Amino acid sequence: ASTRDGEQIAVHEAFKGLFPSISIGTVNSPGTLDGGDVLFTGKHMFVGLSNRTNKEGFNQISKFFSDIPSMSVSIPSNILHLKCIVSAFDDNTLVVADIEYGRKLVEIISKHYSGVYQFVLVPDIPASNVVRIGNSVLIQDGFPNSQSILQTLADKHSVKVVALQMSEMIKADGSLTCGSILF
After folding, report:
1. Which of 33, 84, 93, 137 could form a disulfide with 27 if both were Cys (CB 3.0 to 4.6 A apart)?
2. CA angle, corner 57, sides to 54 and 59, nearest 5?
3. Is there a contact between 33 and 57 (Cβ–Cβ < 8 Å)?
């Protein structure tokens, strides 16, 4: 979003200070890329082409991470980001919102990477955004039907569920991954 122009400089400088020995890439104009549109599963990188991420941004990040198989997927204009409707529970399991485009995304990924991923569909869109940290998975509280499905998934993998109250973040179109920087 244009309201965020310039923040990439501050973020770049902060990361350069924290990690002086790593190479930090930059997406240059006319490319645009928003972190909410980038999902790295541990095996592949999926990039949503949305109102905030364009094909040129995808091309640039794909070149920077040339050793990671990448694919872009078009995101409908009524969905802010890719990770609004899909996130990674682990390297093999994706949590997907059980909406028309979520189901279409399952078909697209399954066709491109046949047999690689298992998909868990949740009925609540915000609940499809989870963050896995070690042996725990952070989920958004307040969605009991989705929480039940995610608890079953977590139990199957001996993972602890931590439900966080995210109602204020959701009001601003935010979610768990929006407030997370994982190393």
Report:
1. 33
2. 110
3. yes
Q: What is the DSSP letter of 61?
A: H
Q: Is a pLDDT exceeding 60 seen at residue 78?
A: yes
- The arithmetic mean of pLDDT across residues 114-128, rounded, is 96
Q: What residue type is assigned to position 106 of the chain?
A: V
Q: Is pLDDT above 70 for 180?
A: no
CA distances from 64 to 6, 37, 125, 146, 180 (A): 21, 16, 31, 36, 22
pLDDT of amino acid 40: 95
Asked whether 37 and 81 are in contact (CB, 8 A), the reply is yes
Residue the block writes with tokens 């499905």: 149
In angstroms, rounded to a whole number, what is the distance separating the alpha carbons of residues 27 and 44? 19
> Which residue's entry shows tokens 């991923």?
117
Q: How far is the C-alpha of 5 from the C-alpha of 52, rounded, in Å?
A: 12
Q: Give me the chain's average pLDDT, please.
A: 90
How many Cα neighbours within 13 Å face the side chain of 97? Answer: 18
What is the Cα–Cα distance from 33 to 152, expressed in whole angstroms? Answer: 34
